[in-house]
Amino acid sequence: MKEWFKKYLGWLGFGIWMIGTLIFLVAKFILNITLDSSILTIGFLIMGAADFIKDILNDKYFTKYSEKVKNAIIVFIVITTIGMSYFLTKP
The pTM is what? Predict the structure, then answer.
């Protein structure tokens, strides 16, 4: 499973960003529903976090640190992304 994340986590993040963009575009231009543009920002935030985590798993960054430190950094990135997404969706 870890090998799959090492390979495709960046693409998964890109897909989430594109799905968010498509939802926003369909709602605004086809269904005439007004959505907050924070869905675009959240998708981009998730894409960036997923790509950064993929690079950490592939030893592009933090090569001198142990796996325990890398896992702590990944948990920090995930918690920060969730927290920022929550505050972006708050009215």
Answer: 0.84
